[in-house]
Write a structure and sequence with these properties.
Blueprint lengths: L1 H10 L1 H19 L3 E2 L12 H13 L5 E7 L6 H15 L4 E5 L5 E6 L4 E6 L8 H13 L8 E2 L4 E8 L1 H4 L3 H20 L4 E3 L1 H35 L2 H24 L3 E2 L6 H27 L2 H28 L7 H31 L14 H16 L1 H20 L16 H13 L3 E8 L12 H15 L1 H4 L6 E2 H12 L12 H13 L17 E8 L4 H18 L6 E5 L1 H35 L2 H24 L6 H31 L4 H28 L7 H32 L6 H4 L28
Parallel strand pairs: 1-9
Antiparallel strand pairs: 2-7, 2-8, 3-7, 4-5, 6-7, 10-12, 10-13, 11-12
Length: about 800
């Protein structure tokens, strides 16, 4: 079959070349249309209760993550010139297209009692810039007297101030949000520089915008570095222009196709899909190394270029198909998760790996068929003493020191068991951001001064119209009780900011109803609350301060809290404390109460995702084992090969435990990816071993050593390129991507040790126990038998060098 493929390729090489060029142009055009993802990744399936509850909450009360927070410490803010500048800043931000509202001490709102209409007027406290310091001092006193804003917009003790910038809904999940956010940031930076005040920015819209920009920058950075590393390694290994030129052409076309596929599928560049181009480069170079090594090896044997190209396809064409298939399977396991981001990544990565295999095979054969024969200097790497010395050293070790190899392996495995027990799970929103990053530092400012910026919501449904104010408005007092119990519970209160709810609104209204006296910032007794209720109902328009907290039927309300960015352990602790309080205060027969919000959904999504990813690892092991069963048919050989490649995963897990790298969505994918790639070496080695054993009728020992001679160099070369290729992710600004690069590199390095030393040692030690007859009679032959070889190992060819 593979000889037939070579004939078709070579006889129609110009047509294939034109076809590839045309498809590449089309893919290049599609690649220009690739878009960045601006939405928060959805980690829960659509039918999950936590997700549906959150969607219902948003449809009722609006998006909970639509506010950009700015905060700073400034003891001189209430000096006239500085306050005027700050007020002008807020006005400038308000004027930015896409900003719905700005709330700060410079444009604070108050309630004014309108006795004639029995309602409150919601009006700005500062109607124009103060003209004098005395006027500003008077305003400052009024601002500080409104307790509703205390610890929300200002903190008198620390002289810290916060402002909330609400974005329009139509800008929130759109590319235009970037321009809005950067306009706001430019205005803030100009004010910060003028007043010499450090201003901190946070909130989900800002965090998502900055992270998206980081992903975009890293996309181009990783492509550039991957290309550079690939070029340098190919030059270092081969010092051959044809080999380097052809490999780089394959790599560049593969990247163009990868981005084109992303566009054709309608996917956007997320933090995971952002690593796809550099991943394709790594896999492409790995394939090129296998082909260049085989081509040069064959050409050195018989000096026939066409025959060498033929054997590149026939001898390793199916072998590399299988290795690419196992790698693709490692990525394809993400398709079985319920997470949209991982599913998309699994689809495009697995498809692109197989497309890249086809591209590398076709382009390699076509380009080298046009190029002149390899020169002697291009073949010197085959006899390079350093690499051959390493192979000879490995053969010496596995022949003479197998017991120490097993002892070391067992010791490593025992240590790993302890390390695995120390693994932890994390699920913070900013888990992947370095503590040195400005985003992280800004987040910590708000956690210290305002409790945090992550939305935590409690939705309360009284199940009946006007239920909030029935029976003496007992629901209001229940909300007050719940807020008080949360505040008084020191095990969780430090995680939260001051709550915002109808209770806070009533306290605010009561203070204003009693002429602004701070001591009346409280929920009044039922009789007074009824009187106050008349004014509140009269204020019931969508322009007042409470429309985001009560529905039009006075049936549903919310308690909105900003909280610290915590992990899954802390969030589950919070939920274990809050849920019983909610259940005891709001009986299920009378109320439907849901604890939700972006922070809760993110935590539940992380837990769900990690559970799914463990399943995907098991699926990956099963799928790869089934594929190996088709190739090798020997159950014992499959078990040995899988054990040899699963042990490096345990080592990686132990490293995560020892170095306190938590299990999270960005690190758990290491296991499926690494398994799919590392098992390639085992397949190539075992396939060559079986070929030597059956076709050349050699002993097991001779077959093992010959197999190492044939594929050992390729195993070392490809492992080096993979380790270095994935190592570039350690340059990422995202902790998860950085950990991904480190962990996969370590796993693949360890897997090389087990595949090139431990696996051959086991074959020699277990001998006939695992090398069964079924192993010698495969369902599919990875390395095709070559019955047409002459005694000198060369195929019959005609005078033109074309294969008969």
């Amino acid at each position: 079959m593979w000889d037939f493929i070579v004939r078709i390729l070579l006889r129609n090489r110009f047509l294939f070349l034109v076809g590839i060029v045309l498809i590449t142009c089309f893919m290049g055009y599609e690649a220009t249309k690739v878009k960045m993802s601006y939405e928060m990744a959805r980690m829960l399936p659509e039918n999950d209760k936590n997700f549906t509850d959150y969607e219902k909450f948003k449809s009722q009360f609006g998006e909970d993550g639509n506010v950009i927070f700015i905060g700073f410490e400034d003891s001189k803010l209430f000096e006239l010139s500085r306050f005027t500048d700050f007020r002008n800043l807020c006005d400038s931000i308000q004027a930015v297209d896409g900003v719905a509202n700005v709330l700060s001490v410079a444009n604070i709102y108050s309630l004014e009692k309108n006795d004639s209409l029995k309602k409150f007027d919601f009006l700005p406290l500062i109607k124009q810039n103060p003209k004098s310091q005395n006027e500003l001092d008077s305003l400052k006193k009024k601002i500080y007297s409104i307790r509703f804003y205390d610890k929300l917009l200002f903190n008198k003790e620390t002289h810290s101030f916060m402002a909330g910038i609400t974005l329009s809904k139509n800008k929130l999940n759109d590319k235009s949000r970037i321009a809005v956010v950067y306009k706001i940031k430019a205005l803030i930076d100009a004010y910060s520089q003028k007043e010499s005040v450090e201003i901190h920015c946070s909130g989900l819209p800002y965090i998502r915008t900055v992270m998206t920009k980081m992903i975009q920058n890293e996309l181009f950075l990783f492509i550039a570095i991957s290309l550079l590393i690939s070029f340098l390694i190919m030059v270092l290994f081969y010092r051959s222009f044809p080999a380097v030129f052809t490999s780089m052409i394959i790599v560049i076309i593969s990247v163009i196709w990868a981005l084109g596929i992303v566009s054709l599928f309608g996917y956007k560049i997320s933090i995971l899909i952002g690593v796809l181009p550099s991943l394709v480069i790594i896999i492409a170079i790995e394939n090129c190394i296998y082909k260049v090594n085989k081509y040069h090896w064959e050409y050195k044997l018989h000096g026939n270029k066409v025959l060498a190209l033929s054997r590149v396809v026939s001898r390793i064409g199916f072998a590399t198909f299988i290795t690419n298939a196992t790698t693709a399977m490692g990525f394809a396991t993400f398709i079985f998760t319920s997470n949209l981001m991982l599913k998309e990544f699994g689809i495009v990565s697995s498809i692109n790996i197989m497309l890249e295999y086809v591209l590398s095979l076709v382009i390699f054969v076509i380009i080298f068929s046009y190029l002149p024969n390899p020169k002697e200097k291009h073949l010197t790497h085959i006899d390079r003493k350093s690499i051959n010395g390493i192979i000879n050293g490995i053969k010496h070790i596995i022949v003479n020191y197998r017991k120490p190899i097993y002892a070391i392996s067992v010791l490593i495995l025992a240590t790993c068991i302890y390390g695995v027990s120390k693994m932890t799970i994390s699920g913070k929103m900013l888990d992947d951001i370095s503590p040195d990053n400005a985003i992280y530092k800004d987040m910590k400012f708000f956690e210290r001064n305002a409790g945090g910026v992550m939305p935590f919501e409690i939705s309360i449904d009284t199940k009946e119209k006007n239920g909030l104010f029935k029976d003496g408005a007992r629901t209001i007092y229940k909300i007050k009780q719940l807020q008080k119990e949360i505040k008084n519970d020191t095990s969780i209160s430090n995680y939260f900011s001051r709550p915002l709810s109808i209770v806070e609104g009533i306290c605010f209204a009561n203070q204003m109803y009693k002429n602004g006296e701070a001591r009346f910032y409280m929920v009044p007794p039922p009789v007074e609350l009824n009187q106050l209720g008349t004014y509140l109902k009269g204020s019931g328009t969508k322009k007042n301060a409470f429309h985001g907290f009560i529905d039009s039927n006075m049936q549903k309300t919310r308690i909105s809290i900003q909280m610290a960015d915590v992990g899954t352990k802390e969030m589950n602790h919070i939920l274990r404390i809050v849920k019983p309080k909610v259940d005891s205060i709001f009986p299920a027969k009378e109320y439907n109460v849901v604890i939700t919000g972006n922070s809760v959904v993110f935590t539940k999504g992380t837990e769900f995702l990690i559970g799914n990813l463990w399943e995907s690892i098991i699926i990956g092991i099963v799928l790869i084992s089934l594929l190996m069963a088709i190739i090798f048919t020997s159950f014992r050989m499959i078990v040995i090969a899988m054990i040899v490649n699963i042990i490096p995963l345990f080592i990686t897990a132990a490293i995560m435990g020892f170095f306190k790298i938590p299990i999270k969505p960005s690190t758990i994918i290491v296991f499926s990816v690494a398994l799919g790639i590392s098992v390639d070496n085992a397949i190539l080695f075992l396939s060559r071993y079986r070929y030597e054993l059956k076709n050349k009728k050699l002993s097991i020992k001779e077959s093992v050593l010959n197999a190492l001679n044939e594929v050992g160099i390729s195993m070392i070369y490809t492992s080096i390129i993979l380790v270095l290729g994935f190592g570039i992710y350690m340059l990422s600004g995202f902790g998860g991507t950085k950990a991904l690069g480190f962990l996969i590199s370590v796993t693949l390095f360890v897997a090389l040790f087990f595949n090139i030393i431990v696996l051959p040692s086991l074959l020699l030690s277990l001998d006939k126990y695992i090398t069964t007859k079924s192993f010698e009679e495969p369902m599919l032959s990875v390395i095709e038998e070559d019955d047409s070889e002459d005694g000198d190992g060369s195929k019959k060819t005609d005078n033109e060098g074309e294969i008969i």
